[in-house]
UniProtKB/TrEMBL annotation:
Short name of any one Pfam family annotated for the protein: EF-hand_7
GO biological process terms, semicolon-separated: calcium ion transmembrane transport; intracellular calcium ion homeostasis; sodium ion transport
Record protein name field: Predicted protein
Purpose: May function as a sodium/calcium exchanger (NCX) and participate in the maintenance of calcium homeostasis. May play a role abiotic stress responses.
Signal peptide extent: 1-26
Gene Ontology terms: cellular component: plasma membrane; vacuolar membrane
Protein localization: Cell membrane
Sequence intervals crossing the membrane: 71-94, 106-127, 147-168, 238-260, 422-441, 461-483, 495-520, 526-543, 550-572
Length: 579
């Protein structure tokens, strides 16, 4: 990713030690009498040689047994025990996704978009989901795999629908701005509260292209479902094989498209350059000895901002023209940062010119500078009063972010301090994340399966609701942070990545699932699950492919889709008996 986040170390080893400490599990047994405090004793694996279980029947003993993953990880047959294990393994999968994301960010910063941003990042982003889908039907007998594969389908459907409903709607809410008369959201202007029609978000046209790609990615689902739609058993394996081939072909095509059209990654670089221009202007104001831009309490110093306005306003017209802004940018030393000066002027106009008259008036300049300073405060923590050093620190921070995002791999390696160490660190993050995924995917699937048995809740619903929170939380937090900046550029980036995540679910993760079905000769019996995936992708795909502005009421459509899809699966499976 383009923008580095401060990473906190995770005490993984102590956590794993504490996890293994609960591996000694036990259960109450009795000597044939009803269990009472006086007649019950605790049996553990260590005492099994000395204490024999006097079960009422072999069936009862079998029902109480649980199988330890890898022969040593804890297991239980109780509801709360399995809930604890699901939460624990889910948290580990969340940390794995975080490590994979951190390693991907470092590689992108060092090597630039291209192959890394277009090929490696999408695959790494889908890796936790893909591994969980894989292990859901990889081990055990064919009957066990057929039962547990519902967990993989639940994750597949849950991740897609989570991204398109709950996350999509939340990004609209946190990114909303006032909608102008032309139907376009005005950047950084949010005065209409929660007006369903007066506020919303606007994306660029490239984001609608990503939505169209997402809509196309449902083709493998349709192919796999064709025999069911035609109500025939002939050609089922052929349909699965064809859908499998199409899935991985779409993965390859999508990655190649990202490699040769890396506009999502380039947007990040453009945004980093714009932030560096902002910080340069702020630093320039202080170097001109106009005064401190921030008061001691962190509020903007309007007097200094107005002094800066009059200094830039060479013709005393009380508004700033493009020529005056261009002269300002040329007069600032950006330390040989290469960027388009005219494009920088356009972006400043976008930030400041709220009236749309192609000039920046004094009040608009003050309001725009306040927004810039607020963003600077959110990026650089000041200790005590806000001194001149605060702006210098922000300028250094934006320069560092720009250097790490230069869109030329050779120069990018040179601009990063100690690139060899950074590459080793990135590889370490990726290996750690992949190892955790591989190690705990199977125990998590087992825990979900045991929790489903203990609560009598179908495993599909458990995985549909719970697992996407573990595997998509890191991306969700990042998307919400970007959307909260309330800019068209950042909203476009946010929704492009949401659509990209759904595309990888519908292609790579589905391809892994189809490979399980085909090579293990399992039965494809997921009509209701496929229907809700198609419903969400088609509705949101059509909804977002041909428009770029979304009023606030559109978030209600997304939110309502989530419970609707759950209700549809329940009714079709348990009322009409589809599965």
């Amino acid at each position: 990713m383009a923008i580095r986040r401060q990473r906190r170390s995770f005490p993984l080893v102590p956590f794993l030690i504490s996890l293994l400490a609960v591996a000694a599990y036990g259960r109450l047994i009795s000597d044939g009498m009803p269990a009472t405090p006086s007649s019950s004793i605790l049996a553990s694996p260590l005492s099994s040689a000395a204490i024999r279980l006097n079960s009422s029947s072999p069936a009862t003993a079998a029902a109480e047994e649980c199988e330890q993953s890898y022969g040593f990880l804890p297991c239980t047959t109780t509801v709360f025990g399995n809930m604890f294990l699901v939460l624990t393994y889910g948290f580990l999968m969340f940390k794995a996704a975080t490590f994979l994301s951190a390693g991907s960010e470092l590689l992108l910063e060092i090597m630039g978009p291209g192959l890394v941003g277009g090929l490696l990042l999408p695959i790494l982003g889908a890796l936790p989901d893909a591994l969980l889908v894989l292990v859901s039907g990889l081990s055990g007998t064919k009957e066990t795999a057929q039962s547990q594969v519902l967990i993989g389908m639940g994750l597949l459907a849950g991740s897609t629908i989570f991204l398109l409903t709950l996350l999509w709607g939340t990004c609209v809410v946190v990114g909303k701005c006032d909608v102008g008369e032309n139907g376009v959201a005005i950047d950084s202007t949010d005065t209409k509260g929660f007006s369903l029609t007066g506020s919303g978000i606007t994306t660029d046209v490239q984001t609608s292209y990503a939505a169209r790609i997402m809509a196309i990615s449902v083709i493998p689902f349709v192919i796999a479902q064709l025999p069911k739609m035609l109500k025939t058993h002939h050609g089922e394996r052929l349909a699965i094989l064809l859908a499998l081939i199409v899935s991985f072909s779409l993965v390859l095509g999508y990655c190649l498209y990202q490699v040769f059209q890396p506009w999502v990654q380039k947007r990040r670089l453009a945004y980093a350059k714009h932030k560096h221009v902002i910080s340069g202007i702020l630093q320039h104001a202080q170097k001109q000895a106009l005064g401190r831009l921030l008061n001691d309490d962190g509020s903007a110093n309007e007097n200094v901002i107005r002094k800066l306005f009059h200094k830039i306003d060479n013709d005393d017209s009380r508004n700033l023209s493009r020529a005056e802004l261009h002269a300002l940018i040329i007069g600032i030393n950006f330390e040989e940062i290469d960027f388009d000066k005219n494009d920088a002027v356009d972006k400043i106009m976008d930030d400041f010119d709220t009236s749309g008259n192609d000039t920046v008036e004094e009040d608009e300049f003050v309001a725009g500078m306040k927004i810039w300073l607020h963003e600077a405060k959110s990026k650089v923590a000041a200790s005590g009063a806000y001194s001149n050093k605060f702006v210098n620190d922000y300028h250094a921070r934006t320069r560092e972010e720009h250097d790490q995002l230069v869109d030329r791999s050779d120069e990018a390696v040179e601009s990063v301090e100690n690139p060899g160490w950074c590459i080793a660190k990135a590889v370490g993050y990726l290996l750690l994340g992949a190892t955790i995924c591989a190690a705990f995917a199977d125990p998590l699937v087992d825990a979900v399966h045991n929790f489903s048995n203990a609560t009598h809740i179908p495993s599909f619903f458990v995985s549909f609701i719970g697992l996407p929170l573990a595997t998509n939380s890191s991306e969700a937090v990042s998307a919400i942070i970007f959307a909260s900046r309330k800019k068209q550029r950042t909203c476009s980036l946010t929704f492009s990545e949401v659509y990209g995540g759904v595309t990888m679910n519908n292609t790579l993760c589905l391809g892994v699932f189809l490979a399980l079905i085909y090579f293990r000769e399992l039965t494809w019996d997921f009509s209701s699950e496929v229907l809700v995936i198609l419903l969400a992708c088609v509705i949101m795909g059509l909804f977002t492919s041909f428009r770029t502005s979304f009023p606030l009421w559109t978030c209600l459509v997304a939110y309502l889709l989530y419970p609707l899809t759950l209700a549809i699966v329940y009714v079709l499976d348990f009322v009409f008996g589809w599965s």
